[in-house]
Amino acid sequence: MSKEQIDNQAIQRLADGTVKQKNMLTGTEVWTVPGRGHRPLTVPTQSVEPIDPEKHGEYCAFCENRYLETPPEKARIVRHEDGSWQKLRGLSASELSETTAEFRRIPNLFEIVSYKYWHLNHGHVPSEAEHRRMAEYLASSEGYDHVMRVVKMRLMASGKTAEEVDAMDDSQLLPEASGFFSGGHDLIVAKNHYEPGGQSTAELASSGTLTPEEHYQYMKFTAEAMEDLYGLNENVRYVACFQNWLKPAGASFDHLHKQLVAIDAHSVQTDAELGRLRRDPEIYEKIMKVAVTRGLILAQNDHAVALSGIGHRYPSVAIWPLGPSYNPWEATEEQMRGVSDLVHAIHAATGRDVPCNEEWYHRPPDIASPMRWRLLIKWRISTLAGFEGGTRIYLNTIDPWGVRDRVLPELRRLRDEGKIADMRLGDECRISTDDLS
Ligand SMILES: [Zn+2]
Predict the structure, then answer these.
(1) Are 92 and 137 contacting, i.e. CB atoms less than 8 angstroms apart?
(2) Cα dihedral 390→393→397→399 (10° resolution)
(3) What pLDDT digit, counting tens, does each position of 12-48 carry?
(4) Span from the CA of 184 to the centroid of ligand 1 (angstroms)
(5) CATH fold of the domain at 3-44+281-436
(6) What angle do CA 413, 418, 420 make, to 5 degrees?
(7) pTM over 0.85
(8) Which SS3 state, helix, strand or coil, does residue 349 take?
(9) Given this structure, which CATH class describes domain 58-262?
(10) How far away, in angstroms, is 12 Cα from ligand 1 center?
(11) Which helix (H) or strand (E) holds 403?
(12) What's the gap in Å between 92 CA and the centre of ligand 1?
């Protein structure tokens, strides 16, 4: 197949202006019809109110004065006065308020894949270390009260009445706590609910309002938690990692957080990609070539590149680490900083009012193929249903060039203002397929 044929198969503009895309990794077909892409990004209307400063630190259960409303923390990142960062693990309940966490790793109260799932289907039980940690945590009265309170909260949220929960004794309640110490669904929660100095409820702290250094710490901490979850049980085959930003993107709290979920299978997406990679070992180079020749490269530094995503249901930006493929937790400090700087910049350029998903794709460790770690930021703005159900062809309101034309000017402004790390933008980028080897 000639290069032009590959390009046209991936993305093609027809005579009337319709843009047809086909995702080379998933086969997803997406059309953008003319006349729809120039509308402003559809942002859900929500009432903007002044922030009540009295409530600082307790706007939601993820806020810093409400540490005891979430399950016992697994680890936290703190920043010292001299600017250095430190990871603290396994704090007791009474130690939680001795420092302020910049980022916390906590079990999700409502797991997608629960401890019970792992226990009943795979005979999963807490490791010796997890068992010890649980016993130590429960040994203090603060820790005991904390765990019991959260267990009861969860039981009531899942339909039990207060009377039913009160009637349960400790021997019935305690087993419910095992998942807090040996579960496979964790959250990485950022410190701030609103941007420091924010005046109104529109000024949420988002990925894009963090500093590049804070964003690096956030990503590194997430990657380390991901590696850790692979060690949860021998049947963990994939750890899904994502960030839902704002309710239309699936977030239950508008407090910045990422999620990590250990699962006992490869994802459908992973299997589809592995199949295509097996048939065409140069698939990534081909996608990169399409992005370069069609003018879809947005930003680049020494370790990563950001490009308008081709063939996605929602307008998307993809961030690809450069060089030989590696998994997130294998990144050197420079690599992680390079990737993080681009992810941060794209979030900042997208803007915090746009609901979005950040999805991480990586190689399952039990697979040898050189599947590449990549991140996708999807703008969850409205799409047109009905047509899609019947045809399996998706309509995306903004084509990849439209994404580029919205993101690039913002990236230039943010770079000029020093709000994102230094990087090459648009025409300044120099990418070739050799950059992937
Ligand atoms: Zn909050």
Answers:
(1) yes
(2) 180
(3) 999 999 999 999 998 889 998 887 655 656 555 568 8
(4) 23
(5) HIT family, subunit A (3.30.428)
(6) 80
(7) yes
(8) helix
(9) alpha beta
(10) 44
(11) helix 400-416
(12) 22
